[in-house]
Write a structure and sequence with these properties.
Structural class: alpha+beta
Radius of gyration: 35 Å
Helix content: 25-40%
Shape: globular
Number of helices: 16
Strand order of the largest sheet: 6-5-7-8-20-19-17
Mean pLDDT: 78
Length: 653
């Protein structure tokens, strides 16, 4: 007979308690231990932690580790955070904890070269003055204290950088932004950009002669670049020596450079140099002197050559068709045209306003742009099948785009003319792309490499100057007209109003390319505030069902109200007090009033069911997410202790 049969009691657990009570105690104990350990770890432990998040948002990427470990001089980062002012904003508080964790992780990898300060600015304090002097943004909270939530950096030679405010909308780029700050502080000299172009960027339309005669001067994009970088204008007869002292090259519709110039660019990129390349199948900026207009628009000048870099593009795995332009009715800009003496607006599918929905949200070169980028007479790019490089689209059209011969847009076509023959292609076309990975030179042959290898045995010989392959990182854009002021800037006589993110795209792309290899490896990370997608999907489905039911009930309600109003205006029976509703009419009115009350009750019931379903699912998900681990630990503890007790009994019997 078993113990249970002998005593009539439930079997005892390892602690002498009944099994059910022992299991409950073990689960409760595991839950308490789990919560306590989390609190202690959050408060006291600053070392490595186990990152169980889906996208490992608390784990430094390899690029950040490499950057933090390669700092040349000490860098000080000061994290300003108004904890008290942020107490009413839990999302900010959670984000601030993530920023702090990231900074501590970078400090641990920097080998003493990164010094952290954590400052909480109080109203009217020296710390608040320090935050303001560092360029941080003070966000009003409705109370006396403003909210500071930013980062200031300083290197050993007084170089300064700042993130004015950690916007939650940009949380996906937190690691990139902080790493970029470190990279800038580690290399404080302004980068030198080699500019190779046939376009009048430095002089304005019309070229040097127009500028000399009092033209409008440099274009906005050139002035913005000149404010940030040290610009070196590259000659048409470009050689490798011209690129020795530049950090990156910006090519915007290159002139007709010869093979030596193309090879110089090839070697620069293969050896690790960065390049932003803009090519246009129908460049409106590439025009003659002011007044050089044909009957239907500007007469193109002879300077630009969209095919000059064709050998390089082929070697990099990029297909650019210089004789085709893109139309996209879904992204067409509106233009005013003269129609029978009056101006009317029309969609012009040759000019495109591409929005954030058309950009790669994970690539820092384009992801943080807030406005559209306006393009005109653009070409398209595509990956060459079998290429070793990685072709990553940055900006694309919609799938309603199509292409036409570039010759058709040479004489200012009208919107109606372009739309008349419009046929959507059914495929999104790439306007800008990042090209990265291994590439091979189309110029360096085996004999040249053999001579270089042989010369390596001779200590007196010069080091080899040519390489046959390398890892590249370039950005190619199939348009140059978007650099024209008219597409992104409006001068009202007092100041220039920026209307689109054309210039920001160029600056972002160059800024990204000029970063270290470690920085280029960083892309967007998932935000820490992850919504309950199952709840959102249920809400969307339930709201759809609710709207259908609501519309039916509202229609019934309106019909009932109309019938009631009709009854109340009908003449009734004549009496001493005048006309009054007949008993039949009064009964009918009461019936309709009851129906209206019932319909309103049904509407409220539908809404309650919607909320109940959503809250029920949310509760189950929260229970599962919060208590799965402690309950699992408790069960494992109970089973483990039970096995240990049975093993002990077996050993003593």
């Amino acid at each position: 007979m078993s113990e249970t049969q002998e005593t009539g009691r439930a079997p005892a657990g390892p602690s002498g308690l009944p099994m059910a009570r022992a299991a409950g105690v073990a689960i409760a104990l595991a839950a308490i231990i789990f919560v306590s350990l989390n609190v202690i770890a959050q408060s006291w432990l600053g070392g490595p932690k186990l990152d169980l998040t889906e996208n490992r948002i608390y784990t430094l990427s390899d690029g950040s580790k490499q950057l933090a470990g390669s700092l040349d001089e000490p860098i000080t980062l000061t994290f300003f955070y108004s904890r008290a002012a942020a107490s009413d904003y839990p999302q900010i508080g959670a984000y601030a904890a993530r920023v702090r964790e990231l900074l501590k992780a970078l400090e641990a990898r920097a080998g003493g070269k990164l010094l952290l300060r954590f400052v909480e600015p109080e109203p009217f304090s020296a710390e608040e003055d320090e935050a303001a002097a560092a360029g941080l943004t003070a966000v009003p909270t409705g109370g006396e204290a403003s909210l500071y939530f930013g980062l200031a950096g300083e290197n050993a030679i007084d170089g300064r950088e700042a993130i004015a405010f950690f916007s939650p909308e940009r949380e996906a780029f937190l690691e990139y932004d902080v790493a970029q700050m470190l990279d800038r502080l580690n290399t404080p000299e302004p980068p030198r950009i080699g500019l190779l172009t046939a376009l009048p960027l430095a002089t304005g339309p019309g070229g040097p002669m127009a500028a000399f005669q009092g033209g409008r001067g440099p274009m906005q994009i050139y002035e913005l670049l000149d404010d940030v970088y040290d610009i070196k204008t590259l000659p048409e007869d470009l050689t490798a020596d011209d690129l020795d002292d530049v950090d990156a090259i910006f090519i915007a519709q290159p002139p007709a450079i010869g093979p030596a110039g193309v090879k110089a660019i090839d070697q620069f990129v293969l050896k690790g140099g960065r390049a932003l390349i803009l090519l246009d199948p129908a460049a409106g900026l590439d025009a003659g002197a002011p007044g050089a207009m044909g009957p239907d628009g500007p007469i193109p000048g002879p300077g630009g050559d969209a095919d000059a870099l064709a050998p390089l593009l082929a070697a990099w795995g990029v297909d650019f068709q210089s004789d085709q332009v893109v139309l996209d009715q879904a992204r067409a800009l509106r233009v005013a045209i003269n129609q029978d003496g009056r101006y009317v607006e029309r969609s012009f599918p040759l000019w495109l306003g591409l929005t954030d929905a058309d950009r790669d949200g994970a690539d820092p070169a384009v992801a943080d742009l807030s406005r559209a980028i306006n393009f005109a007479s653009v070409g398209s790019l595509a990956a060459v099948e079998g290429a070793d490089t990685v072709f990553s689209p940055l900006i694309q059209t919609t799938d309603r785009a199509m292409t036409i011969d570039a010759a058709r847009v040479a004489f200012n076509p009208q919107p109606d003319e372009l739309l008349r023959d419009y046929l959507p292609g059914g495929e999104a076309l790439t306007i800008a792309a990042r090209i990265s990975g291994p590439a091979t030179s189309p110029f360096v042959d085996a004999s040249e490499l053999d001579r270089s290898a042989a010369s390596a045995d001779d200590e007196a010989a010069a080091p080899p100057t040519a390489v046959a392959e390398g890892t590249i990182n370039v950005i190619v854009v199939a348009d140059t007209d978007f650099l024209d002021d008219q597409f992104f800037a409006r001068d009202n006589g007092l100041f220039v109003q920026i209307t689109a993110d054309n210039a920001s795209f160029v600056l972002n792309a160059l800024d990204n390319l000029l970063g270290s290899d470690a920085l280029l490896a960083l892309r967007a990370r998932s935000p820490s505030d992850r919504p309950m997608t199952a709840v959102q999907e249920l809400r969307a489905r339930a709201e759809t069902q609710y709207l259908i039911e609501e519309q039916r009930l509202q229609a019934e309600l309106q019909a009932t109200e109309a019938r009631l109003s009709e009854l109340e205006t009908q003449p009734g029976e004549e009496g001493a007090a005048g006309f009054a509703l007949s008993p039949q009419q009064e009964a009918e009115v009461r019936r309709f009033q009851n129906e209206m009350a019932g319909i309103r009750r049904d509407l409220r019931a539908v809404q309650r069911r919607l909320n109940a379903d959503i809250e029920g699912l949310k509760g189950w998900l929260m229970f599962f997410n919060i208590w799965t681990v402690p309950l699992g630990l408790g069960a494992a503890l109970w089973l483990g202790r039970g096995r240990g007790r049975r093993g002990g009994r077996g050993a003593t019997s």
